[in-house]
Amino acid sequence: MAAAADTTEAPFDPRALRHALGQFATGVAIVTAPGAEAPVGMTISSFNSVSLDPPLVLFSVARSAHSLPALLDAPGYAIHVLGREQEETSGRFARALAGKWQGIGHRPGLHDAPLLDGALAHFECAAHARHDGGDHVIFLARVLRFSLRDAGEPLIFFRGRYRALSPTA
Asked: Which residues form the Flavin reductase like domain (predicted)?
């Protein structure tokens, strides 16, 4: 009789896991939504498409994020794909700080979610579903309207730093 395989998972260092996950280059986006007193916005790197029919996208938010309660209550969101020139905006929205909207051009979108000026693409979404994601909440959003700008390079995050795409030879 063959011996059973050991399926016990060995614990590993969360920092090492984070470093390994950093080997995957991601685009950078900001999600915005209306808040009870003021709009909320935060930088995300967990944005991706899910389905074209129906048009669904997802993003995840840490359970410790100050914006999480407002996002959980929001009827909809705006997701912004950032361009290379928006690195400072990404850094500003990555921190929980007052005044992150100071000097940031925006206009109201669907569900009063702010649309940030200069993004490569905007996705205006309705809340669709939420799922447990461990220390994160996974938001599934239905795209109701979108716009895009065909010029400009994306903002990329790789190995813990913002990066630029290299031109192909």
From this structure: 21-164
Cβ burial, residue 88 (10 Å; 0-12/13-18/19+): exposed
* pTM more than 0.90: no
Superfamily of domain 25-159: Electron Transport, Fmn-binding Protein; Chain A (2.30.110.10)
Helices and strands (H, E) in the chain, number of each type: 3, 12
Indicate the DSSP class of residue 49. Answer: E
Residues 141-162 pLDDT 10s: 999 999 999 888 999 999 989 9
Strands 29-33 and 161-163, by their bridges, are unpaired
Tokens of 93: 């929205």
Q: Which tokens go with 100?
A: 């992150």
β-strand partners of 33: 40
Taking the CA atoms of 143, 146, 148 and 153 in sequence, report the sign of the dihedral they define: negative
The DSSP symbol for 93 reads H
Task: Return the DSSP state at 154.
Answer: B
